[in-house]
């Protein structure tokens, strides 16, 4: 295996594991495969593959035969994970990790495997999860976005569920998706005219296909609303073990904490504890725009945010920071709450958050603002009203204060307000 000093390659990898047959049972790694890829050409530079024998073969003796042919007989003479740990560490540590659903599964299994043998796990320079990426950029047209579904969509055959073959299939799927998206970006007008879904809708509605303006606008508005929600997870969909943090390069040689799950959450029907604070200044002491709202936090949301806090705060201490860590969940009230930050755009004149008003009928109307002025929002964000919040988690360390800021990407305010 080629070892690189500057670790510039993408490390695409995949695991095959046992499937738990009862609650609480761990997944046992049975196969590891990885390909080092040049980031500028996606050309394969090197690869590594091996079956893995569990430390206790009896632990898989009663498991059913896998459809991919991996069973107790095929792994009996293979090395254990402890015997391949040096190789796996060298492949992954300090490189950008890539793969399909690695943030939801494979990354956590790697951490568990190294923990079981009492060794530090490798840390990535960054992560590329093609499931998240393609759901955001290519979603809806290819079904459930599983690798097998995408492969069938592009006529690439079926997924083998063997680690090295699946990594190569993942790369091919990415290339096909990128090509389609590149071509579509070059032909925006033709897409609306030739899209079979649009043609079918026109026929069903009895509309003249040569006069598609109103229908096209309506469809595009609906797609824009859907796009804003793609990539966001409900709190109960988050796999806690897959969340971990790392230090990444930042301004002028400094470092900052990054939650490598790239976690974005969607919390629907959140109740506003307080509306816009009209008494506070619009800018903080550093001159940055400051506009926050406080909403009640559900138990599932608290569980996820507390886990992120524990992981990020520990890394903050380990990195030598002496800043005071501020928990993201506020527990000074009778019910846990969170503070959602509404940022301004780069020129600090308008809101960077998409803000919608939801009518009782369920339709959403995007609100357009011309300036960053909290008085405009005071009639919308009222105490006791409900909203759907889509937000990202942004760790910060500034002037002796550190923590995780919840940055609102999209807010949907329900027009029917219920007051305390």
Automatic annotation (TrEMBL):
Organism in which the protein naturally occurs: Prunus dulcis
Keyword check for Magnesium: yes
Protein's name according to its UniProt entry: Exonuclease domain-containing protein
Cofactor(s) needed by this chain: Mg(2+)
SMART domains tied to this protein: EXOIII
Keyword terms: Exonuclease, Hydrolase, Magnesium, Metal-binding, Nuclease
Coiled-coil positions: none
Signal peptide: none
Pfam families named in the record: RNase_T (PF00929)
One GO MF term attached to the UniProt entry: metal ion binding
Limits of the Exonuclease domain: 9-183
Residues annotated as transmembrane: none
CDD domains assigned: DEDDh
InterPro entries assigned to the protein according to its UniProt record, in alphabetical order: Ribonucl_H, RNaseH-like_sf, RNaseH_sf
